[in-house]
Amino acid sequence: MTMPQPLRIGDAYNPDCPTRHILDRIGDKWAVLVLLTLKDGPARFNDLRRRIGAISQKMLSQTLKSLERDGLVSRAAFPTVPVTVEYRLTPLAGGLIRILDQVTQWAESHVGAIMAARRAHDGALADAMAA
Amino acid sequence: MTMPQPLRIGDAYNPDCPTRHILDRIGDKWAVLVLLTLKDGPARFNDLRRRIGAISQKMLSQTLKSLERDGLVSRAAFPTVPVTVEYRLTPLAGGLIRILDQVTQWAESHVGAIMAARRAHDGALADAMAA
DNA sequence: CAGCATCCATTGAGATACTG
DNA sequence: CAGTATCTCAATGGATGCTG
């Protein structure tokens, strides 16, 4: 019955497949955090840094650059002194943001269940150890 | 106007916040791949290994254990010789899977735009270098 | 302000070998 | 078959100091 079925899910398994790359992007903790922060509107570099808080300047810079490269964030520099730079989501990012929102929503409403599962699991493990 | 607003998005920024943990789970490349593979129905250890292909046995084992701990995957062992173990999604995982499906769907329909943005970006960069 | 360059510690993850 | 244990190397990512 169980035919081999080498690949499914587009070719998400194949590291060369572009779809997989999107997964990696979602998998990037900082990228997601930056996108969700920019959802509130355009923001400047140190502004983002402060709002995200835990991110290092190196990571923020790196993350913004890759997001810009992927066309999800746009960068605008104004020739003030000192220079002012503003980042904002592109229209392309819109659909992704909507999905990310669903993720956080799902997370918030199921964290309880997951933590409970975890406690149950760890408890069972402890019991097994004790026996 | 721009009031401080220390934290948003639940407390996703806070590493201690449980919501953040879900983000990390989604951020786990292997976890996502395993969940999506299990969507097709229950599967055994080496079965998963073959289907995912690129995953090492260590990572698969590790991933399955953490997914089980979080109550997203259940494990059933049958006392055959040699032992047979079957993994399957729990009901809790159902909603998450639906969102992951949306992610892959979005990915597949926007990969083109992203690759184009990237080419444009890299091209512009190359031009700047040449100038 | 908005970054880049460098150094360094921690972690991630593959390969390999072994067990019930 | 379904894992565990160990070793090792590469990549993450933080801290620091500097620049236009």
Automatic annotation (TrEMBL), chains A, B:
It comes from the Bacteria. The keyword Transcription applies. Residues 17-115 form the HTH hxlR-type domain. One of its GO terms (molecular function) is DNA binding. It holds the Pfam family HxlR. PANTHER family: HTH-TYPE TRANSCRIPTIONAL REGULATOR YODB, TRANSCRIPTIONAL REGULATOR, MARR FAMILY. This is Helix-turn-helix transcriptional regulator.
